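Hi L., both proteins are below.
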Amino acid sequence: MNFVTDTHALLWWFIDSPKISPKATEIFEKCEQGENIIFIPSIVIAEALSVFEKKRLSFDFKKLFKKMNESENFVLIALDYPILQKMPDLKDVPELHDKIIVSTARYLDVPIVTRDRVLQNLPYIKTVWSKTLPSKPISAFSLEHLTNSAFGMANLFMDDTIDLHQYRITDTCPRISFVF
């Protein structure tokens, strides 16, 4: 089977992080065994380099790039005209890097391996990830911290934060609903 990967999924697999879901691990393992193909949008590599340079995650970027380059089952996808053509229709995807990832998946007609709830909630794209409950309860302080923090990659890569995309905060109800 074929997949597109989001940045955090690729990096968590590469560093063997406990944050990666069992389903995502299985997909990457099958890729290494030659059973799956994982398409990697060029923006994912650019984000991985940014994470590496900012030292938000410790890993050997050159080793990652070499591993992908030597494998027939990891395929780097350039940002080109057919993918760019799909981007203007993605008004409900706020982040540029996510637009490129979603456009790539739509162009290739494959699911995305991602934990990102924004992408998981898109009705026109299939995503793959195991749903898990947060490892610690949410206090009033952490709720305030989460609502004041930036949505996106910072929470995905920090070891001691809860990914805000796991929750749906509604204006009509002062509680957090888990999204399963």
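That was the first. Here is the second:
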Amino acid sequence: MTRRESLRGAVSRLKGRGADALRAIPLRPTRPTTARGASRAALKVAALVAALAVALFVVGSAAAAFYDQYGFHPERNARSWAALEPSYADQGICQTCHAAQHASQAASRHHAVSCESCHGPLAAHAADEASTSLPLEEPPATICATCHASSSGKPVGFPQVELATHYRSGVCRACHDAHSTAVVRPPEVSHPLGNLPACITCHKPEGLKALPTGHERAADAVCLGCHAVGADGLHAGER
């Protein structure tokens, strides 16, 4: 007698409502009864194993790539750092040729700012004897904005400007000396302002007095924000 037959006999000898429920459950074989069923089961197992293998390969490759880039490789890291060419010169090298600018900066609020923080890496410039007599290119306004663009996270009292409204031409050095941090006082309006047309009526490229380089056409309030003096004797930008 097979195990299945003995199980059927045991169920048939039971009585009551529970016995009826057990008899209603079909006793299906736990193994494929045909070659086709066995083949399908084998294919399912093979597909599952293949999917698992692919998943493990992908995860392993990603982990290996991540470790290769961000992992701890003492020897490789040391070799890569040693192979780098220095691109920044020492601060002391700059002052050997640019003594006047260094002296002006050393006495200003910019004394702790490295020359190359604004001028960029200059090791090649310092090493090239032919280039030491040439003036450096002036840093763009974006360099100034890196520190001085208005931001709520900066310390109270740190000089900040709203880039959208503060001299929109973007030529910071037209008014500010980057080494001494001194502000060039804008020229005062030398004529009465009452009963006059807009500033740009006369102060324009083709007007009686052309706009200075770097200026743009703007409303009177913008012009007078720099060039008009208040009752306290100060320009708006100096208060």
